[in-house]
Design brief:
six-stranded mixed β-sheet; single chain; globular; Thr_synthase-like; Rossmann fold; five-stranded parallel β-sheet; 33 helices; amino-acid biosynthesis; THNS1 protein; pyridoxal phosphate; alpha/beta; Shikimate/glucono_kinase
C-alpha cells in the first residue's frame, strides 16, 4: 500500500550511442511500426472509444510507456499522478501523503479517480489506484486495463536506484518486498491484459507489446481452432468449421473425428518473459501461461484467476503444487501426485470442470463422458464433484473403465468418488475399447442429436482428447524447468531432457508444446511398458497394431495401444496437413497400421526418443531406488526411470515425470519391496506401506477416500456399443428428467 515520492525525476531508459546506419534503420522501422498501428487502429478503433489504462507497481514504467503508446496512436496521454491528483489537490503527491497519512491518502486518491473521466486516451495509473475498488470500477468501465507485470526483484532494484524515500503504507517491520507482493492481488483482480516485462526490456519494446496485447484483446476471431483432419481448402470454403476455445471445451471431439488444435499454434514466450517467471509461484505461472493460451473473450483474466485459485489453492497437499526433487546424479523427479486423487490428472481435472461450467451455455444440460485406464476416472469424478450445486444440476459425469484392467485401489477410488452427479461403469474390455467407444458415440450424429432433442442434453468429453485437458499440463512442464533455474541447478537457456511414462501421448505432448512455446527442452523421452507400440513407432515410423494384444501390467495408465494425442503431434510436424493425418488414421482404422515418410520421421526423431521397460525391470527399479534412497517410486515412474537410465546421455539434467503416488499401486509396490504376505484390503496395504516410513509419505487423502468409500456398488457393462449407449440414456433420464 504505497505511492512513490521522488526527490527528482528519474529516467528509467539509458541513452545508447549507435552508428548512424543503425539509427537510420531503427528510425525507419519505428516509422513503419507507427504507420502500421495508426492504420490498424483507424480501421479498428478502441472499442467504444475506450481508454488504454496502464496499471502496475511503482517503477513499472507506466508513465514512460504511456507516453510512447499515446505517441504511436496519436491520442491524448493522461498521467493520474501529474494530471489528476496534483491538479485536484493543488499540491504535490509528496505533500499530500505527508499531510494526510497513508490510509487517508488512499481514500482521497480513490475519490479523485471517481471524479475523473476520459475517452480515447492512454491513462497511466498510480501504483496504488487498484487498491480502491470503487475508483477502479469507475475507470475500468470505459477502458481496457493493461497490467505491466514486472518481476518484484526488478522493481526493488529500480526503486532503490530511484532513491524512493517514502511509500504509502510503509511501517516498521514490513518489507518493501512484502508490500509489493500484497499489491499483486489487486492487479490480478482488475487487469484485462497482462504484459510481461523483464529486467532490461526497453520502454519502446514494452509499448509495442502493449499494442500487440490490445490488438489481441480486440480480435478474438484470430484465435480459432481447427480439426487435425480438416484441409486448408475445406477451411477456406467453410468458415463455420472454425471454433473458439469455448466451443472446443464443450464439444471435445471435432465432427470429422479429428482433434481440435489452435490454428495459429500456441503462443511463444521470449526468453525474457520466461525469466520473469523464475521467482513466481506455481499459481502465478499458471495464470500467466493460461492467459496467453485462452482468449479473454472466452474467459476473462479475473475469472481465470478465480478458477486457478479454486483448483490449486487448497486441494493439493504440497504448497509448491508440483515440486521438483533431486533424485540422484543428473536426474530430477517432477512430483505430480500431490492432488486429491494422487495422480498428474488432478492438474487438469481440478481446473477443467470449472472452465467447462463457465463456458457451456446455460440453456442445456451436459453429460461428460470419460474413458480411463486408471487415474483419469477418479480425477474426473473428484473434479466435477467440487462444482457448485447449481452447476451439478446441469452437469453430470459418466466414467467408463476396464473392469479388470485397473489396480484394486484405483477401482475402489473410482467407486468411492461417485456422487449425485458422477457415476462409474466397469466395462468388460480394455481401455482402447472404452476410448474408441466414446469417439464413436461422439461422431454418431443421429444418437447425439436424439439426446439433445429428446432430453435437452449434450455430450462432452473429459479425456485428453479435450483441448482444455492439455493446457494445465503445459504449465507444470514449464514450471519444472523454471524451478531448476530458481534452485541454481542450471542457468536459464541451458537445455534439459524430460522422460515421461507415456500411454495416450497427452502428457508428453504437453512437454512438446512447452518446448514449442520457448522452454529449453532438448529431447522428450517416451517411456513405455511392455505395451511398447509407441517405442517401435518412434524408432521406425511404423505404427502397427496388427498381431498386437494389450498386455495387462502393473503400470495400467500406459497399458494403451491407440495413443489419441499422437494425432495432434503428427498434425503439428506435418505443418497442419489435415489430408495426410486423415489418410494415416483411416489406414490405421481400416488396416491396423500406417507408416510415416522419411522426412516426417526425421522431424519426429528430432524431438523424441523412446524406450520400454519390462515388468521385471520396473519392480527391480522400485526396489533399487528404495534401498538406496528410502524413496518409493510408483510403477509408472519406475518405467520412466528405467528408460531414462538407458537413454539419457548425462550431458544435461533429465526431469522424470512422477505421474502417480505409489499408494495407488500398493500390491505391486509391496511385491517390489519383497514383502511376502500381502493383505487384499487396500486400506491395510496402505497402513503396511506407511510402517516402512517411506518418502514421500503415504497419500493420506487417498487413504481417507478409501475409508469413506460410501457406495460400493457400480455398474458393469459388456463390451457392446448398444449397451453403453443404453446406460448413457438411463443416466440422463435419472439425473436430468
Amino acid at each position: 500500500m504505497f505511492h512513490i515520492v521522488r526527490h527528482q525525476p528519474v529516467r528509467l531508459l539509458t541513452r545508447i550511442s549507435l552508428p548512424s546506419t543503425c539509427l537510420k534503420l531503427m528510425l525507419s522501422r519505428a516509422v513503419a511500426f507507427v504507420q502500421i498501428w495508426k492504420s490498424w487502429f483507424s480501421s479498428h478503433p478502441l472499442v467504444g472509444n475506450k481508454n488504454i489504462i496502464l496499471m502496475g507497481p511503482p517503477g513499472a514504467g507506466k508513465t514512460t510507456v504511456g507516453r510512447i503508446v499515446g505517441q504511436k496512436l496519436d491520442c491524448p496521454v493522461i498521467d493520474i499522478d501529474d494530471d489528476v491528483l496534483e491538479t485536484t489537490w493543488n499540491m504535490s503527491v509528496s505533500e499530500k501523503l505527508q499531510d494526510v497519512g497513508s490510509e487517508q491518502f488512499l481514500e482521497e486518491e480513490g475519490k479523485a479517480l471517481l471524479k475523473f473521466s476520459a475517452s480515447g486516451s492512454v491513462i497511466s495509473l498510480t501504483g496504488s489506484n487498484p487498491m480502491h475498488a470503487a475508483g477502479m470500477q469507475h475507470v475500468k468501465k470505459n477502458g481496457i486495463v493493461v497490467y505491466l507485470d514486472v518481476p518484484t526483484a526488478v522493481i526493488l532494484s529500480r526503486l532503490q536506484s530511484m532513491k524512493v524515500d517514502r511509500i504509502v503504507g510503509q511501517s516498521p517491520g514490513v518489507s518493501l518486498k512484502d508490500i509489493l507482493q500484497f499489491r499483486k492481488q489487486f492487479y490480478k483482480r482488475w487487469h484485462d491484459i497482462r504484459v510481461l516485462c523483464g529486467g532490461d526490456i526497453a520502454a519502446e519494446v514494452v509499448a509495442e507489446k502493449v499494442l500487440d496485447a490490445v490488438k489481441r484483446y480486440q480480435n478474438s476471431e484470430l484465435e480459432t481452432f481447427i480439426s487435425t483432419r480438416s484441409s486448408r481448402s475445406e477451411r477456406s470454403m467453410n468458415k463455420d468449421s472454425y471454433k473458439y476455445f469455448s466451443d472446443v471445451v464443450t464439444e471435445g471431439l471435432a465432427p470429422d473425428g479429428g482433434l481440435f488444435v489452435p490454428e495459429r499454434g500456441l503462443p511463444k514466450f521470449t526468453a525474457g518473459e520466461w525469466q520473469s517467471l523464475i521467482e513466481a509461484t506455481y499459481m502465478e505461472r499458471a495464470q500467466v501461461i493460461l492467459e496467453r493460451c485462452i482468449h479473454p473473450a472466452d474467459i476473462p483474466a479475473s475469472k481465470l484467476a478465480e478458477i486457478i485459485g479454486t483448483a490449486y489453492g487448497e486441494n493439493f497437499t504440497c504448497s509448491k503444487i508440483a515440486p521438483v526433487r533431486h533424485m540422484a546424479g543428473n536426474q530430477f523427479l517432477l512430483e505430480l501426485f500431490h492432488g486429491p486423487t494422487a495422480s498428474f490428472k488432478d492438474f487438469a481435472l481440478q481446473l477443467v470442470p470449472h472452465i467447462f461450467a463457465y463456458c457451456i451455455p446455460r440453456s442445456c444440460n451436459y453429460l461428460v463422458l470419460v474413458a480411463t485406464s486408471g487415474d483419469t476416472g477418479s480425477a474426473v469424478l473428484d473434479g466435477f464433484s467440487r462444482l457448485h450445486d447449481t452447476d451439478k444440476q446441469r452437469i453430470a459425469v459418466m466414467n467408463f473403465f476396464p473392469e479388470d484392467g485397473v489396480s484394486p485401489i484405483q477401482k475402489s477410488q473410482m467407486i468411492g468418488c461417485q456422487t449425485e452427479n458422477a457415476w462409474s461403469v466397469g466395462v468388460k474390455s480394455d481401455f482402447d475399447f472404452c476410448q474408441t467407444a466414446i469417439k464413436q458415440i461422439f461422431t454418431n450424429s443421429g444418437y447425439t442429436g436424439f439426446l439433445t432433442v429428446e432430453y435437452g442434453t449434450a455430450l462432452a468429453a473429459a479425456n485428453s482428447i479435450n483441448w482444455a485437458r492439455l493446457l494445465p499440463q503445459v504449465v507444470y512442464h514449464a514450471s519444472a524447468y523454471l524451478d531448476l533455474v530458481h534452485q541454481g541447478i542450471i542457468p536459464f537457456g541451458s537445455p534439459v531432457d524430460v522422460c515421461i511414462p507415456t500411454g495416450n501421448f497427452g502428457n508428453i505432448l504437453a512437454a512438446l508444446y512447452a518446448k514449442m512455446m520457448g522452454v529449453p527442452i532438448r529431447k522428450c523421452i517416451c517411456a513405455s511398458n511392455e505395451n511398447n507400440v509407441l517405442t517401435d513407432f518412434i524408432r521406425t515410423g511404423v505404427y502397427d497394431l496388427r498381431e498386437r494384444k494389450l498386455i495387462p501390467t502393473s503400470s495400467p495408465a500406459v497399458d494403451i495401444l491407440k495413443s489419441s494425442n499422437l494425432e495432434r503431434y503428427l498434425h503439428m510436424i506435418a505443418k497442419e496437413d489435415g489430408q495426410l493425418v486423415t489418410q494415416l488414421y483411416n489406414q490405421l482404422e481400416n488396416q491396423g497400421h500406417f507408416q510415416l515418410g522419411k522426412d516426417l520421421l526425421g522431424k519426429l526423431q528430432q524431438d523424441l526418443v523412446a524406450g520400454w521397460c519390462s515388468e521385471e525391470d520396473c519392480l527391480a527399479a522400485i526396489h533399487s531406488v528404495y534401498s538406496t534412497t528410502g524413496y518409493i517410486l510408483d510403477t509408472h515412474t519406475a518405467v520412466a526411470k528405467v528408460v531414462a537410465d538407458r537413454l539419457q546421455d548425462r550431458s544435461c539434467p533429465v526431469i522424470i515425470s512422477s505421474t502417480a503416488h505409489y499408494s495407488k499401486f500398493a500390491p505391486a509396490i509391496l511385491k517390489a519391496l519383497r514383502i511376502a504376505e500381502i493383505n487384499q484390503n487396500p486400506v491395510s496395504q496402505l497402513h503396511l506401506l506407511s510402517s516402512y516410513s517411506p518418502l514421500p509419505p503415504v497419500h493420506w487423502g487417498l487413504l481417507e477416500t478409501l475409508k469413506k468409500r460410501g457406495n460400493e456398488d457400480h455398474q458393469v457393462c459388456a463390451a457392446d456399443m448398444s449397451m453403453l449407449m443404453s446406460r448413457i440414456e438411463t443416466l440422463i433420464q435419472s439425473h436430468f428428467m
